[in-house]
Amino acid sequence: MQVNEYTTHSPKETKQLAELFARELMTSDVARKGALVVALEGDLGGGKTTFTQGFARGLGVHEKVLSPTFVIMRHHNMRKSDFRMFIHMDAYRIENIKELRALGWQDILKDREAIVLVEWANRIHRALPKNYIQVKFRFIRENMRDISMSVKLKAKSVKQQLKT
Known about the structure:
CATH class: Alpha Beta
CATH architecture: 3-Layer(aba) Sandwich
Strand content: 25-35%
Largest sheet: 7 strands, mixed
Number of helices: 4
Distance between the termini: 22 Å
CATH topology: Rossmann fold
């Protein structure tokens, strides 16, 4: 598995990195059966929302993108690609994976025309699809962040592995 590591020195650089990453994703062929999921993980103040704003700009989303901490999820229409919807989710307030049912999580994951970005994805790790893109943020100092990006492939369960 390839891991790409970056260090940004300002919020502007973090947004630029995210914008380039989003543009590249829109033309990539990441293995997936449904939505393209980008899972953000990192400490509070680590740069997740800043990254998300640049990512949305790279997708061609024109609305102002704010963290949906209290509403959990926001939908943004897209026009620039084969994707028709950018879904921005903040899982910080999710206490139980069962809460995702009320949000239509399973239907969202089945939608091949959706790009889903999840802040605080570690809180719903078990609900993520088999394949997703993980972006981890590490706070270095005030404006400096280490950002690592990798494609995650969830392993089959032990029972499934023994059957094959």
